[in-house]
Design brief:
Layout (H helix, E strand, L loop, with lengths): L1 H7 L19 E4 L2 E5 L4 H6 L5 H8 L5 H6 L2 H7 L6 H8 L2 E6 L2 E6 H4 E3 L2 E2 L6 E7 L8 E7 L6 E9 L5 E6 L6 E5 L8 H10 L12 H27 L2
Antiparallel strand pairs: 1-2, 2-7, 3-4, 3-7, 5-6, 8-9, 9-10, 10-11
Bound molecules: flavin-adenine dinucleotide.
């Protein structure tokens, strides 16, 4: 999003930092099942690398804007921009990604669930950079659910939902685009219906707010959120059933 903003003249930074020369910045590495994404790993890298976590590959394949966006847009950039409508943040939260952050005081780590603070805000200080993202081995599971609801093929999503199995066998559902920051709802694997009350409660308890922009108001997003979550959940449950079928 930096390039369109520079082109429109809506921002005029004094300094631009190019992270390409950070060692390993454009690399995706796997070790003992876990995956590390350098700060410059793009959507195209995920699409082309068969070892990339299946959920992240799936989301990367659906990013709109054409090859230029997929070649240039990075997973770290999407996280740092923290646009509520961006698709990767829910996947990073559902995966339990750890954000590796570097700044003048050294390096530190932050869980994805804490990293996203609100609409267009993160826990990054102005003088810090996100240098890598660590994804646990569980992210490599072929069992996932993802749903995005948008007005047209090329528009930003109104609601997104990601579903993954968590380490303790429960299912993590993460809502995005309809809320200011990703909201997690943990449910048992056999659950068949979600309620609006459960979603409202999770939004409130996790310090998020319903999100409105020119695409949809809060009331509409709130109604659509349950549809996105239900579809992502059904998709995950379907994959689990298929895998377990003899
Ligand atoms: C036409 C178009 C269509 C798009 N469609 C979709 C879509 O369908 N789904 C979707 O999810 N997204 C979509 N996007 C967003 C896009 O996918 C990018 O992910 C997102 O804009 C980030 O791009 P970038 O990596 O170039 O980051 P940049 O634009 O370079 O950076 C974004 C912000 O984060 C900061 N930043 C970037 N990297 C770091 C870092 N490592 N450390 C600290 N700060 C950093 C920058 O300074 C800047 O403020 C679209 C964008 C466009 C222009």
């Amino acid at each position: 999003m930096l390039i369109p903003q520079l082109t429109r003249g809506t921002i005029a930074p004094d300094v631009l930092v190019d992270l390409h020369r950070l060692p390993g910045a454009a690399r995706l590495r796997t070790s003992a099942g876990a995956t590390t994404l350098g700060a410059m790993v793009s959507y195209t890298t995920l699409i082309r690398d068969p070892t990339a976590p299946p959920l992240l590959r799936h989301i990367a394949q659906g990013i709109t804007g054409g090859p230029q966006i997929r070649n240039q847009g990075t997973i770290a950039g999407s996280a740092c921009y923290a646009n509520p409508a961006s698709e990767m943040p829910t996947a990073l939260v559902a995966s339990g990604a750890i954000m590796r952050i570097a700044g003048p005081a050294g390096t530190r780590s932050c869980g994805a669930a804490d990293f996203f603070d609100g609409a267009f805000t993160t826990r990054l200080a102005p003088n810090e950079a996100l240098v890598a993202l660590d994804l646990p081995a569980s992210t490599n599971s072929p069992d996932y659910g993802y749903c995005k609801i948008k007005r047209s093929e090329s528009s930003w999503p109104i609601a997104t939902a990601t579903a993954l199995t968590s380490g303790n066998g429960m299912l993590n559902l993460v809502l995005g685009a309809a809320v200011t920051r990703p909201v997690t709802i943990t449910v048992p694997p056999e659950i068949s219906t979600l309620t609006v009350a459960t979603i409202d409660q999770a939004v409130e308890h996790q310090g998020a707010e319903w999100w409105a922009d020119e695409l949809a108001d809060i009331g509409y997003r709130r109604r659509v959120a349950i549809v996105a979550l239900t579809r992502a959940l059904a998709s995950l449950q379907e994959r689990i059933v298929k895998r377990d079928r003899p």
